[in-house]
Write a structure and sequence with these properties.
Elements lengths: L3 E2 L2 E4 L3 H12 L4 E5 L6 H4 L3 E2 L2 E2 L4 E2 L3 H19 L4 E3 L2 E4 L3 H10 L3 H4 L2 E5 L14 E4 L3 E3 L1 H14 L3 E3 L7 E4 L2 E4 L2 E3 L1 E4 L17 E11 L7 E4 L1 E4 L4 E3 L13 H14 L5 E12 L6 E4 L6 E5 L5 H18 L13 H7 L1
Parallel strand pairs: 1-15, 2-3, 2-16, 3-12, 8-18, 16-23
Antiparallel strand pairs: 4-11, 5-6, 7-11, 8-10, 9-10, 13-14, 14-15, 17-20, 17-21, 18-19, 19-20, 22-23
Helix pairs in contact: 1-6, 1-8, 3-6, 3-8
Length: 354
């Protein structure tokens, strides 16, 4: 086999690896992606929702004002590059549980912090044949979903056409570093970027990173109702792909679906929607989370050619586009990576483990 000299080697092609590959395509860089597909990887099971106002306390997502305009342009451009459709903007509707909540959101809607993302406050129930909302609800804009399976498959097909994809599990025993270059089998590059999600713990170079797998389960349902909004309260229901999610289980580190997961999701879905459905399938996966809920990007403390892009946690769809750009700017121009997301914030863990 002839020697393949490239700028970069990417390992893993979930959301992190796919977004990074798209950035490098736009920079006209030569690279290869080594990926072993896994039907239970976080990206494959994700519902792909992006929503700027989230959580039990309904706060604005960290960096929302930067992340959301960026992702909108990024995924549209990705559709143009790959010639596929996977990015859908759609409002999110969150029913209120009490009159107090309704009043609170009336106040917040005038707050400049939120007004960009609030479409309307509904004071009375709407579409009661679809959703249980006795006190009305909050309609959010600049939201939607990415069909993550189609996105990854489209990037995969595009990379195959460029001859830039190798389907295999990275064999770290075949990886060597010499004179600021990386060598893997017949390939040579300036750096290798690990985008391996929660499987990073299996790497001899990065097992010290504090990435914790957070298990999530989703349901796939069928129904005859047509929706043009994502309902979200306790669970979310994404139309078209009909995914209901997701559970969050820190304790359960086992692989596979559970009856508890199904029970939790169906109970919450029944509190949210008012039309009949049948459950077709249940899936599970692990989100790669970090203690401070921020992504991790940058070089290994001792080997600068070894780079990580990980820690996308529960919000990979909104974080991956923006931070793949930040990482590309560091790789290409050494523009600094903010301390809040830089891998260097965890270097002390490496030295402790050494
Ligand atoms: C149930 C569930 C629901 C979710 N819902 C949402 C949502 O609605 N919105 C949202 O934004 N986020 C959601 N997430 C989170 C989101 O899925 C993750 O943030 C994101 O997918 C992580 O992407 P990643 O590329 O870092 O990792 P992964 O998706 O795990 O991808 C890593 C890839 O690398 C490959 N790989 C690993 N090791 C190797 C190796 N040694 N050699 C070769 N290949 C390797 C894997 O097989 C995989 O293909 C959800 C997650 C779960 C589990």
């Amino acid at each position: 086999m002839s020697k393949q000299i490239v700028d970069y080697i990417i390992v893993g092609q979930g959301l992190a690896g796919s977004c990074l590959a798209l950035q490098l395509i736009q920079q006209k860089k030569k690279f290869i992606v080594i990926d072993q597909p896994d039907s239970n990887s976080a990206t494959q099971v994700a519902a792909g929702l992006f929503n700027p106002i989230t959580g039990k306390i309904m706060g604005k997502t960290w960096l929302a004002n930067s992340l959301f305009p960026y992702l909108n342009k990024f995924y549209q451009r990705a559709e143009e590059i790959t010639g596929s459709r996977f990015y859908y903007t759609m409002p999110v509707y969150r029913p209120f549980h009490t009159i107090e909540e309704q009043n609170e959101w009336m106040g917040k809607s005038a707050d400049p912090e939120f007004e960009f993302f609030i479409d309307r406050i509904l004071m009375r129930p709407i579409d009661t044949d679809q959703v249980k909302n006795p006190y009305g609800g909050l309609l959010l804009k600049h939201c939607g979903y990415l069909n993550t399976q189609v996105f990854c498959q489209s990037v995969r097909n595009y990379l195959a056409k460029l001859n830039a994809r190798q389907e295999e599990n990275l064999d770290e025993t075949k990886l060597t570093f010499k004179d600021n270059r990386v060598y893997y089998k017949n390939a040579e590059a300036s750096s290798i970027i690990y985008c391996t999600g929660e499987k990073i713990s299996q790497s001899q170079f990065f097992s010290w990173l504090p990435i914790k797998p957070l298990k999530g389960e989703t349901l796939h349902i069928a129904c005859s109702t047509k929706l043009n909004v994502i309902y979200n309260r306790g669970v979310y229901l994404v139309p078209d792909i009909w995914k209901v999610g997701a559970t969050y289980s820190k304790q359960d580190q086992s692989e596979g679906i559970t009856t508890e997961g199904k029970k939790e999701l169906t109970e919450k879905l029944d509190q949210l929607i008012s039309f009949p459905y049948t459950i077709i399938n249940q899936t599970w996966g692990f989100r790669p989370t970090t203690p401070d809920r921020r992504p991790i990007l940058g070089p290994h403390p001792e080997i600068e050619q070894l780079i990580v892009f990980n820690g996308l946690g529960t919000k990979g769809v909104s974080l991956a586009p923006y931070f793949s750009n930040i990482l590309t700017l560091w790789m290409e121009k050494r523009l600094p990576i903010n301390n809040e997301v830089a891998l260097s914030r965890y270097y002390s863990l490496y030295w402790k483990s050494a």
